[in-house]
Amino acid sequence: MALSSFGTFFILLILGAICFQLAVAPQPPRSGSDDNGDVENDCHAQDATANTVNSVDGSSCTPTQFTKANPLSDNNKKWKWDPTSKSHPCNIRRISRSELLRLYGDGGVPNLYPYPLVIYPDGDGNNDNGKSKFVNLTTLDNLPLNFPSNFLVTLTGSDSLSSHRRTIPLTQYLREVLTANNDSGETLPNQLGNETWYLFGETFSDEWAAFLQAYELPHCHSCTPLHREQNKIALAFGMGNIGSGVQWHLHGPGFSETLHGRKHWVLYPPGSRPEYDLDYASRHWMENTYPVLEDWSDVDVQNENKNHGGFLKKWNKRNASRRRDIGERSGVDVVERGPSSKKPWECTINRGEMIYFPDQWHHATINLEKYTVFVSSFTTEHERSQY
After folding, report:
1. I need a labelling partner for 251 at 20 to 30 A (CA). Which of 16, 156, 318, 329 fits?
2. Helix and strand counts by DSSP (H, E) for the chain
3. From CA 314, how far away is CA 144, in angstroms rounded?
């Protein structure tokens, strides 16, 4: 009888140990949360009451809290589209600054030029003292010195609508982008765009305006000192890490110059709106949609070259002091209306180079290095008052 009691006790002891192990075993995170429990939900609840997340002391809704499904575990994953590659294709016409001025005069790019252009400096680009000075002001070490201590910057989400805002010190933002995702300084494809904070589009304060006065405008017919004085050109400063960038969107024409790092651009003409998930940043599209699209054929490349040649002939033929109709909006003859089955116009804009993006072209951008800095110039010749 005593042996039977001991046996019963021993069995109960084993079952108790098993139940204890099951109780303390880690459970998989619930859908919509991360390994921090409800932190992600808490951040979303805060966003539901206000689009601006103020984190001056860094205590609320930092990017690590916003990470979806713990992408830190994906750091070593082999992605389909590698932003750090040095061999991304370029099918956009590249032209030196001197050749641009030779073809179109000192005014540079004509109003409403209908095709993308990549403009690169002659030589090594270090002979321009004005540009070299501003580039030096924007190095990682020097950038914070241009502003008061604890200078606040307003960040935007990287989704197509840039629907969220967050205000933090500039120095904190620099630390966050450089150490993102386990110090990789990388934004991953599976991070939601409205939870991926980005410095761009909210640099219009007096401090930013004073800082950007030192920036040399592009060579274009709507980029003169008079346009600047009359506020008919808007400048925006931007900075991001590897894989960051804004999802597909469109607006008026302009330029974007890379000051540090490299930046990849993808574009479609107005009639070919790409399909994309507006909740994610641009790298999500590059990872999931771009690889399955058709490559450009030799005929596509030849047609791109002919487009620029045809515009130049029209320019020379209508060589007059006022060229109101030179940049006709019908410059791109797009048969299809809707998503293209082919890969976009694309090119990597290296340090010292700039891209011209035409009016109402769909475009997205992806930064390729840990510290990528750029300035965009938005012109206004698409407004009838500017003709």
Report:
1. 318
2. 11, 13
3. 47
